[in-house]
Protein: histidine kinase
Amino acid sequence: MSLSVLNKPPNLVWRLFSLWLPLLVLIVMGGTFAYTQSRDARLATVTAEQTAYVNQSITQISAELSHLRHLMLLLKGSAAMRQGLPADDSWQLMRIESLFRRFVNVVPGVSQLRWLDEQGMERIRLNIGPKGALRVPDSELQNKADRYYVSQGMQVAAEHVYFSPIDLNVEHGKIVEPIEPTLRATLRTGVGDGLAPGLLVMNINLADLFERLSTAVSDGMHLEILNGQGYWLLHPDKRLTWGFQYNAEKNNLAVRVPRLWQQMGQHHYANGQALAGEWLSYSLIQIEDQDEAPRYLYLLVTTDDGRLAQIHAALLPPILAVCLLCLLGGGAVLYRIGRADHERWQLGHRLAKEQAALRQAYEDLARLHETSQLLQDELVETRKLSALGMMVAGVAHELNTPTGGALVTLSTLHKQLHQLEEQLSSGLRRSDLERFVGQCDEGLRLALHNLQRVAGLIKRFKRLAVDRSQEQVHKFELKQCVDDLLASLHPLLKHQPVQLHVTIPDQLMLHSFPGVLSQVLQNLIDNGVQHGLLPKDGGNLWLEASKVERQQLEIRLRDDGVGMSAEQLATIFDPFVTSGRHQGHIGLGMHLVHQWVTQVLQGSLKVSSVPGEGSCFVLTLPLTVREPVAEAID
Structure:
């Protein structure tokens, strides 16, 4: 954050608006969610009530139809019926009248009961009114063959009770007032039953049933019954009912609410639907299945707008109150936030100045760190060159003895050769020749031996130098690598009171960095000689190697020297930590060893020590390393 930005005070109004807007959105979303969940819970209760009323109404209607069916069959199968309407036309209509009177006295809701002959002519008819059952005189009996319920009733099976569509009772071409919702049940006679051919017809006045069904629903709901064409048979608004008989085609659900009627045609029942601005449930009931097109009734329970408004009115105030409280509380919090922003701006202004000073100090420290890193890299290279220089000096010293011996031997042989030439000119004796041959043979053997030593030293040094200079992964034998290292270290170790015991099995092959491993072992041996063992007393070094599980190699280097304290163990691998700084050591040896082992050789290095009992370094290395990392090697 720059000072130019901090010099401008923050826009408190914009800050409050940017914080208040998300809060407002959150409160609106939360209030909407709470309202929706609460409304759905209330509507679930309403839906359960509607479903219960629909099922209850279906049960009552089904029970009524089943009861009528059994009554018609019972009436037809009675003994009085067989005696009153024998098949031989010797009818005794007085018996039938007596049977009909007894029947209507025990069966409520019957408005007419009659028997028609096979031409559709009424032969006996009882009208049931407030004064009881009255037989219609024969002169007033009518031919009903043109009525749909007669023609259809004559076509059904003999033992099937036919139920006509529900309509209003019509007499002499006029609708009877007050209206009588009528269901006609018919049953054929004279088909294998010993009765005269004809049709029993019973008119059922459904006014009482409709009244019971409409009053069964609770307040705030009402029941509607529609026929299969969408006309209302029962509705709270009487003006909408019986539209198909009053030629009021608009009083039809398909016309007034086509979307609902279309859904009812596709789905025969629904519980808890929001359609046409109302909350409703409906179901279908089949009342006749013998026609070519089965006949249905639809029972529809709707909830008044007033009850839905009560639900909304009951939910909105508490939810709005909670939202308002959240807004007030949020406003107070936002005001505190605005004040805090102003104070934060003041603190930030001061902090920016301090940051500028800290940034300058950081840049200075970064430059110092870069310089320190370059110095450390130079010290590392110096350490490598120092080790290489010591190794070269040692190898040169080792080469001096056999080379000098070979030179002395060859010089003596050269002198003896000149003596032989002089003796040849003065007279060579056999004994002189034999002595020369013997001296020559012995001298050549001695020279050859010294030169072989020189060649071996040079070969080992060359192999060691190549391994360290190339720093590439290749396959090598561990014992040979250690032998080359010890040969280069021999001049340094032979003047020290140190005994080095090496136990390395043959044919132990590795696919790794031989130069890096040689450098690690050299530093560890050098560390043991310089720091682990006393210069005067000396001691023993043990270098051991063995395979362990999971294709790994374990190398142990231990001594019986002075050991290390807990503090020294905790910092032994840290850079520039040394106990021999007065001797010119810089403290990078063990740090480099740890880096080489963990990053290049892909292994681990552990150290344990007891003061006065010596130290033990344990290297755990894979027999085969992964792809080398150039940065780690460098």
Notes: The first strand starts at residue 110 and ends at 117. The first helix runs from residue 3 to 6. Residues 269 and 283 are 4 Å apart (CA to CA). Residues 1-6, 629-634 have pLDDT under 50 and may be disordered.
